[in-house]
Amino acid sequence: MPPAMDINKLRNIGIIAHIDAGKTTTTERVLFYAGESHKMGEVDDGTTITDFDPQEQEKGITIRAAAITFQWKPKEMWINLIDTPGHVDFTAEVERSLRVLDGGVVIFSGMEGVEAQSETVWHQADHYRVPRICFINKLDRIGADFFRVHDEVVERLGAKTIPLQLPIGKEKDFIGVIDLITRQAYYFEPGELGKKMTKEPIPEEMVDEAELWREKMLETIAEADDELAELYLEGEELSEERIRAGVRTATIEHRMTPVLCGSSLKFIGVQPLLDAIADYLPSPLEVPPVEGDDPKTEKKLLRHPKDEEPFCALLFKIQADQHDELGFLRIYSGTLKPSTRVLNATRNRKENITRLWRIRADERQKVDLAHAGDIVGVVGLKDSITGDTLTDQRSPVILEHIVFPDTVISMS
Ligand code: GDP
User: Fold this and answer.
1) Whose C-alpha in 77, 249, 299, 311 is 20 to 30 A from the C-alpha of 238?
2) Considering only CA atoms, which residue is closest to atom 25 of ligand 1?
3) Is the ipTM of this complex over 0.85?
């Protein structure tokens, strides 16, 4: 059994990217570091973990959303990774996943930079007010340029960025990142699958540049954090924790965007990315309540992310695994146990939820009690389709209506 989950230490996040920016590779690396993946798969030979749909493996693009749960032990965090599709034809599905996640990692290719579809997805994420971190990937590629892509994120997307790292080296000589908060250089040894991260002082020739960017970083954070601004102006030494808290406030409350960089293929920058997800993106308990309609009176109702409130969840995906047809639920309020009768408030039909599962990279785990804020796969739904609201029978609510283009997708 997995250890009990503290929802404060949970992050519901999605990786959002233009096709080919490296979403699959990054997901793969993330799961690897999280210790979920025993056998590494490479995108190019069609054996990656998230892309378990044969059709998808064939195409090499992520066309189906799936939620995978893993633990990021260094920060004692749980992450529900909601897979968002990365192809231009599937923006409706991207939109649906944006609805259920609390934070996003937006990946840009360090070569191609911001592309037309990245703009669409970025603005969709703005619409749903999803706090984001940017990861400028593929910096080992010829022609990749962190600074150019960073400027595009600012100019084309109108993002207020907080660069937290600088790349060390370019193209084939790209070997690590400078962390502007800790003032350290992190190198990622090619060793056994590039696992090893070492920490060293910033190289002499980059010290001045790093200090300049650090000042800029602190000034930007200060715009969002008055207390930090005061300490900064008084010339106080700011601790790493204090700066991180400022970045967190800036990201969650002021929609500023921390920017990190790396090469997921070469395992560069992936561990710091996981730390950033834990440090800067919100827990489900920090997001505003969801709004819905009382189906009888049509009055507006709010559901807060609290176990004590009546159960309410959005069915955001129906997907078969090798055993069952699973309905993926984002629980917004209340709790859910196996063998529970719930109401599909959207269709006014009762449903029996027989079992709950948490989907790990290579197995699934039974869940006896799912809490407000969590995402689980459930078995037993008969008459429900993607987009329906499931609730406590006595307290029905229909969440803000979202029009989804497709209905039940069954792979069985
Ligand atoms: P997705 O379409 O966004 O899921 O992108 P993939 O992860 O499938 O990557 C697209 C291609 O770019 C594949 O051939 C990857 O091997 C390659 N790729 C991904 N990340 C990197 C990287 O950091 N550096 C380099 N050189 N190639 C990468």
Assistant:
1) 77
2) 138
3) yes
Tokens of 98: 């944006």
Looking at 223-324, which runs of residues are DSSP E strands?
A: 257-261, 290-293, 300-303, 312-320
Give me the mean pLDDT over the 197-215 stretch: 95
- Which residue did the predictor score with more confidence, 249 or 60? 249
Q: Which mutation among 58, 173, 265 tests ligand 1's pocket best, with the greatest number of atoms within 8 A of CB? A: 265
Which pTM does this prediction carry?
0.89
Phi, psi of 132 (to 5 degrees): -135, 150
Q: Is 134 helix (H, G, I), strand (E, B) or coil?
A: strand
- Please state, as a whole number, how many other Cβ atoms lie within 10 Å of the Cβ of residue 158: 11
Query: What are the C-alpha distances in Å from 289 to residues 131, 280, 316?
Result: 16, 20, 18
Whether the CB-CB separation of 87 and 63 falls below 8 Å is answered with yes
Question: Please, which pLDDT band fits residue 231 given cuts at 50, 70 and 90?
Answer: very high
Atom of ligand 1 lying closest to residue 137 CA: 23
CA distance linking residue 181 with residue 168, whole number of Å: 16
Mean pLDDT of 222-238: 95
* 66 touches 27 (CB < 8 A): no
Our mutation pick for probing the ligand 1 site, out of 15, 20, 26, 145, counting the most ligand atoms within 8 A of Cβ, is: 20
Summary mean pLDDT of the chain: 86
Could you tell me if the CB of 261 is within 6 A of ligand 1?
no
Cβ 23 vs Cβ 97: under 8 Å: no
